[in-house]
Amino acid sequence: DSAESSPSVVLENVFTFKYSPNCLQMLLENISGLTLDADFTVELIPEISVAVVTFIKSIDTKEFVKKCSQDKRVREFKMTARLLELTQTIKAENLPDSISTDYLTVYFESARSGGGPVSDVQLFPSENSAIITFCDHKGNT
């Protein structure tokens, strides 16, 4: 178990019941006691039936996962929650045709962008995407 906990939680099976994104957001606000946009964001990924909740406000995400597993509605909807694993690699998509590996390296190393030292950039021009590998997991927020 790493000493540093991820600021993001993955909610699985979020599309197994019919709901609106607002319903999920309200459920998360009820569980966390926090406010969407001010304290956390939600990214829905319907292709794999998950939502990623990223906390802007510093909270104990392990405790939040525990609260989710105990929540009546979460259990009723058969959703599960787990910490998002920290990773050293990310995929950037929808990149402009003219993008270069040098530009991406400098961009993702920018402290202003929440980046860190980049060890590798693989460009995939046919997909307008790139795989960026950081020297450690702290640079991929």
TrEMBL record:
InterPro entries hit by this protein? Nucleotide-bd_a/b_plait_sf, RRM_PARP14_2
Pfam families registered for this protein in UniProt = RRM_PARP14_2, RRM_PARP14_3
Where the record annotates domain PARP14 second RRM, the positions are 5-85
**Annotated protein name in UniProt:** PAR14 polymerase
